[in-house]
């Protein structure tokens, strides 16, 4: 995990031996399961460290920070002391666990829910939660359009994460209903996103969001720039959203 260790340092993180061992076990399980199930097209040892693990950890650059006077906040030693403690997080379309599981490994006090509609991937996620002994981590095997109306999940989360799930106009309908007012969506995107962001502005406003920042991130080992699209939840999402399963992708808002 040398690439991961050095790359994390460039992101401002120090990964101790325990965290690196967890990532090593994660890779071994991912590679073994991928022989039977199509979890990811990226299985090379070096590429997984960069394109899965480090890319996931780059989300921390857009995580909420604690208030300056919150001196009593307890934050693990591996993360910037400015991070807000114990965020309630949801990873939408978690797939093989990215970005949710890497973030949970590095920020163990985060309360993480991994939402994944595909059954075999949800089984793998549950397996990894058990193998890595991840506390306060839940696997939710359902569609975002359904879970978004569940009162146990709607308007509950501080941070809603999504990576390579859908175009932004679709993604915000999946994600914003889960955010509490004052929370945020962090969408991981590639370099060319200007048109995608412009097409999503109407949907973001309709669903109670406000575009706050598009952060450019240089991830070690990934030559092309990555973007973190940060959307704040400024008011409640109208009750009719998200629409029924399949509709957001077929008829994006705006």
Keyphrases for this structure?
single chain; about 250 residues; alpha/beta; 9 helices; globular
Question: If you had to describe this structure to a student in words, what would you say it looks like?
Answer:
The chain is α/β, with parallel strands linked by helices. Helix content is 35%, strand content 19%. It is built from nine helices and seven strands. The protein has a seven-stranded mixed β-sheet, with helices on both faces. Strand 6 and strand 7 form a beta hairpin. Helix 1 runs parallel beside helix 3, helix 3 packs across helix 4 and helix 7 runs parallel beside helix 8. The N and C termini lie far apart (44 Å).
Number of strands: 7
Sheet having the most strands? 7 strands, mixed
Q: Based on CA inertia axes, which overall geometry fits?
A: globular
Report the helical percentage.
Answer: 25-40%
Q: Strand order within the widest sheet?
A: 3-2-1-4-5-7-6
Task: Outline the secondary-structure elements.
Blueprint: H1 2-10, H2 17-34, H3 45-57, E1 88-92, H4 100-106, E2 111-115, H5 119-131, E3 137-140, H6 144-147, E4 157-163, H7 168-175, E5 179-189, H8 194-206, E6 209-217, E7 226-233, H9 247-250
Parallel strand pairs: 1-2, 1-4, 2-3, 4-5
Antiparallel strand pairs: 5-7, 6-7
Helix pairs in contact: 1-3, 3-4, 7-8
